[in-house]
Amino acid sequence: MADSMIMDVPAPASVAPSRSLKTTLARMVIPPPLLHVYRRVGLWRMVTMLFAIGWSSISVAFYLWRKRGFDAAWKFVSVKLFTPVGPGGAGVAWFFFGWFIRRYPLLYRFPRQLEMEITTRCSKRCIHCEHTYWPKESQVRKNLGYDEIVRVLEQFPTLRWASLVGEGDTFRHPDMMELVKYLRSRNIMNYMPEHMSDWTDETFKTVVEEDMDGIIVSFDAATAETYEKLKRGCGFEKVVANIKKLVEEKKKRNSPLPEITFIYIAMKDNIHEIPEFVDLVADIASRAEYGASSRIGVVRLLTFKQILDLQVDEIPKEIVELAQERARARDVFINFTGTNERELLPPPECCLAWMEPYIFMPGHISQCCSVFISNNRDFIREHAHGNVYEEDFKAIWNNKSYKTLRYLIGKKDAPIPMQCANCRVFDTLPREKKHGIIDTHTGEVMSLREFHDEHLGENMKWRYEDVDVNAFDYCEPHRYADQVARFGERACARGEVAPERCEEECEVSV
Ligand SMILES: C[S@@+](CC[C@H](N)C(=O)[O-])C[C@H]1O[C@@H](n2cnc3c(N)ncnc32)[C@H](O)[C@@H]1O
Ligand code: SF4
Ligand code: SF4
Prior knowledge:
Oligomer: single chain
Radius of gyration: 22 Å
Strand content: 5-15%
Bound molecules: S-adenosylmethionine, iron/sulfur cluster
């Protein structure tokens, strides 16, 4: 999660008010999601990193082919090429073909990747995590059963990548190892964030033997003191020992998997330790031992009302430079992604994140993971597109709400779907002001003021503190209203209300 969560999602294009020729050229030739990497690490380092990632992917694909056959290798490669968000690969192909699917989103037939929250139990109390601040009644805390989880995964016959991580301790789920085996039996790529504080011998054995694709170690400090202050309940020494042990297990079995990468959430209390963290990572093992494309992703904190004081606007340049210098010296890749400054976020017309649904406890469907970690669950649940335990996912995917969202999000002059208002990955505000916010279930458009006063959760209102919401209280009928109205009827992917014929021609169930 937090990685597309926020990691490989499109990032701010540039912060410089007046653009140099170099920046303008870079913007013309470098795909938007890579611009921030270029800006932080420079062209040469970026190319080296991409080359290493490409090379490592090719060698892992051959490894899987030899050990598990063509299907495993092909699915791995196809995730690298076609999974648009998340650690699975960022879907390089979409840099080239993304425009087409943005333009005709309803032609995208069915998701091949998803995230699913299989537990909301957690024994830790990390100071930056919404789980720590949930009011008792806002979220049930439980493990889904193995059969319940598999019943959902079976609804996705063409699934290529899945993350089973939500707000909870996934690796303490009693069936987690069985689920790792299940995912491997279908060759579904499986790459997840995890703190690695509580691993048992069985965990090490299963993740290596089953060729789990990757672990993103949530590791937010370089010293035990800071780490244990932030990740309350996790043990610094234990995690370091467990990473070493995982590296040893991989060597013993001569396996490149799982690839080990790191996610470091940047907060007031830990940004000064980023350069030291580079050394720590290099001291534990080498990049070749982690996996050639292993990297540290320094990721912005996703904020909500209770943790506003942890937020940093910008990581000081000296820290970034020192971290880069050490990374070069120690052969570590480091990357800084994301921003909390709304005006630096790209416009929602660039979004493809809806291709990866997020199924959160207990079964509610959200279009993506980008609205999570906002401590705003009542809102998300209330406006979910459906619930997989009440209805088949295919029916939900084709319902009015989901179709309206997919159809409108990429259109510059359309209202913002309610579930996307206040997105932390794209800047939806200009469209919220100009075209309003649409309730995707009913097709009704409301003004920013109405949305703010009547729907937005209390924990997210701070995001609108500098906006005069009363200034935008009138919305004109939008030009896609007729089309949206048809989604309520039995309209097909092309928007035609002639189900039998369309079902045949478009092969899209209605
Ligand atoms: C919610 S945790 C679940 C997995 C596991 N319990 C763990 O700690 O890695 C997944 C990731 O979200 C990150 N995370 C939690 N709160 C966050 C926040 N406010 N902003 C950004 N990332 C956050 C965690 O640091 C972790 O890397
Ligand atoms: S970050 Fe992970 S370990 Fe920490 S409280 Fe949240 S879910 Fe639990
Ligand atoms: S909330 Fe909407 S705009 Fe934001 S990433 Fe998800 S689908 Fe895209």
